[in-house]
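Quick question about two entries, pasted in order.
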Amino acid sequence: MAKDTIGIDVSKDRLDTFWHSRAEACCLPNSPEGFGQLCDWLGKQEDVLIVFEATGAYHRGLERHLSLTGKPFIKVNPKQARRFAQAIGRLAKTDSVDARMLARMGVVLDLTPQAVEGEDVHDLRELLTARRALVKDQVTAKTRLATALNPLVREQLARRIEDIGADIQALDEVIAQIARQRGTLEERIRRLMTIPGIGRLTATTMLIDMPELGYLESKKITALAGLAPMTQQSGKWQGKERITGGRASIRRAIYMPALVAIRFNRDLHDKYQQLLKAGKAKKVAITAIMRRIIILANTLLRERRDWLPERP
């Protein structure tokens, strides 16, 4: 079991922390000053695992600081943390209670630190997040333009769409530049780009949103992506298998590459046609191809080889 843990409940303005072995709690600001105070509190302790939940934008500063200072930490899924709390009978939910629960979760489940990411990975993640926001704005503006009648509104929307396109292009250029110049990911990106349908942006997105790619077995990586069919069965009742959970950003990233692969990858095209002939819906068949692509990407990275039309 883990020797010691610190649970941190992250909110917009503060970090509620609890040191498991010392049974000490403190509240720190969610800012660079607070991160420094946390490191001062830890002192020279190197075997203390810091456990916190993923909280969208609010945990990123803490995660970046811990990565750059080399402190061991693990970012857990909020749903899993809540289910752990329910399993141990902790129904109350406050910031201080959650901090205690996270510290205990790290000990009971014997959680291990996640891999430390370089500064370029954090920069790329922030740029990709900004790009996704711009794409959403672009779709919204195009939808409004399709129904707008007033000339002034149409002019403003057209100008807005053009500006967003320029901003997206600028982000794409910076993302590619960082990956090439500072990149600890460049070789892995190049290897993924050998797969038909996967370009530089898709490859970068896959590696940033799923850093575990290439390090896990196939069943685990498909479950992590939310592409593993989950069986529904009880007694004599047999329900339909369906995908659930996982990382939606990965599924969005490989959806278009899956459509390209169906057209230009002979093996995947044949598999797609086989599923359709077996009576599977097109969405189910496409999901199966997406699953094969994520398994293929994981295998190539694990075996450190490029994709070839015919496996040697």
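Here is the second entry:
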Amino acid sequence: MVSYKDIQLTTGLSLATISKYFNGGNVRPANREAIDAAVAIHGYRPNAIARGLRSGKSRTVGVLLPALDNDFHLTIIASVEQRLREVNIGVVVATSPSADAATVDLLLGRRVDGIVAVPSPHDVDALSRAAGEIPVVALDWRAPGLDVDGVFLDNRAAGQLAARHLRSHGHTAALVLSPEPPLSSVAARVDGFLAELGPGGVSLAAPLSVDGARDAVASVLASVLGPTDAPTAFFAPNYELTLGALIAINESGRILGRDVSLIGFDGTDLARASRPRLTIIEQPMREIAEEAARTVLDLLQGERAPARERLLAPRLNAGASVARVTDTVTD
């Protein structure tokens, strides 16, 4: 059986350095490369269970998600796993469809050393308790009552970015779609949009449920090409509303980017599939996940401090779905 001593004979490094490397400590790049080469030569595989029993650490981090049904959640898994693998930490992925699933307790039962979570409202209390034992990092939205480190999109800036793009194309009145009840992230996008476009310049729709997004958008399309003071554009501040708006516009017979303007949120593939290409506000999903992984690593290495919040900037991915007002066709 291959052991640390075999790695030592091949590399000439001390057992202390080799042990530090396999336990996630910082070693010199040259030493790391030498150990990696020796591992490849000998086919060495650390015994994670035995090592965990000795250290009291499992060298795993839980990734807690509401579901596995969108690009954002899948990108989180891939990016967190990639970053943690670099320091020999694995991930345990779990979804939390309901409070009955007791998913946080399940992860604690697996002895994870930390949790990266897109928190569901029903998991806030359990995550708060877990944070008293292990590092917890929240993503996507600020859950009231969950006082932990967080990495989020600057959602207010996302709404402002959408408003500025519309204004640069001559739009001064727009309809903002919002699910009911909105998460804090969506509410911040709407607030930023309203503040940037200015009072009196926006017609805000009554809160719309995600399931009703398609019908709600269709119901206001008739007014878009009506009076001159009617809304000339839509902002859909999450993916589900973006999809509903696109379906409604396509089924209405209106031409996107000519008869009606739309800015969506996320959904790069959806934007590429629409004709003309949809303008969207993107959140840097990979960067958010990588920053969350770095944060949990810092906490695992003992850098505990009052909970910190990191905001990452949104990006505008401009397509051709926003018409200039002077180009808008009226009947």
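Reply: The radius of gyration is 24 Å. The longest strand covers residues 60-65. Hope that helps.
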